[in-house]
Amino acid sequence: MIQQLAGFAPAPVAARMENHGNHMLKVAMQTGNDLLARVGSMVAYEGFVQYEPNPPAVRQIAKDWMTGEGAPLMKCSGDGLLYLSDYGANVVVINLNGDAISVNATNLLAFDAHLTWGVERVKGLAKFAGQGLWNTKISGQGWVALTSRGKPIVVDCGGGEDETYVDPDALVAWSPNLKVKGKRSFKAQSLIGRGSGEAFQMAFSGQGIVVVQPSEDSTDRLRVRG
C-alpha cells in the first residue's frame, strides 16, 4: 500500500512556493520569512509553524476597508513545510521580481509578508459602479499564490491598440499598469439564462497580462464601495 501511495509524496523543496499537483500550494517556511495566507487555507504542515489571525499589519490596512473588501488573512511563521488550498481550486504561483500585480481578493491565497500591499480603487470604473471597484495590489520582490476556479488563461495584452475584454466575475488578476475602463452592452440574447439583459465588461489596454478563470462565480467578486 505504501508503494502505491508513494507517487503522491511531495517533491524535494526547490523554491519558497511550489505547486503540489494543481490544487495545493507547498510553502517552505523559515524563521524571519513570514507568510500572509487566507484564513482557513491550511490543510497540513510539517515542523513548527504558528498562526496569528488578523495580525497588526493586516488590521492597520483594514482600517480603510469596508465590509467585504480584502481577504481575511493570517500570519504564518516558523520553520517547516506548509500546505495550503482553497476548496480544490487551481493554484497559480507567481514570483514577483520587483514588479506588481493587482489581485481580486477572492483569488488571493498567500504571499510573502514583506511584500508591499494594500487595497486600491480600480481607476476608470467609478461611473459604472458608484464609487468604483477595489482590488488588492501587491508589489516588490517575493512570492504570491493565487487561486482559479479551473485552469486559468493568461492573456498578454501586447501593448497594442486593441482592448482585451473580461467578465468581472471571471477576472483573477492583472498588471496594475494596464489601463482599465468599463463597457456596457445590451443584447436580446443576454436575457436568456443568467443574464439580466445588461452585460458589463472590463476593458484592458497597454503592456501587461490579465489572468482569467473559466468560471463566473459572482458570489464574492470585485467589491463595490459606495
UniProtKB/TrEMBL annotation:
Protein source organism: Streptomyces dioscori
| Classification of source organism | Bacteria, Bacillati, Actinomycetota, Actinomycetes, Kitasatosporales
The UniProt entry, under Gene3D superfamilies, shows: Mitochondrial biogenesis AIM24
The record's section on InterPro entries has: AIM24, AIM24_sf, Trp_RNA-bd_attenuator-like_dom
Q: What is this protein called?
A: AIM24 family protein
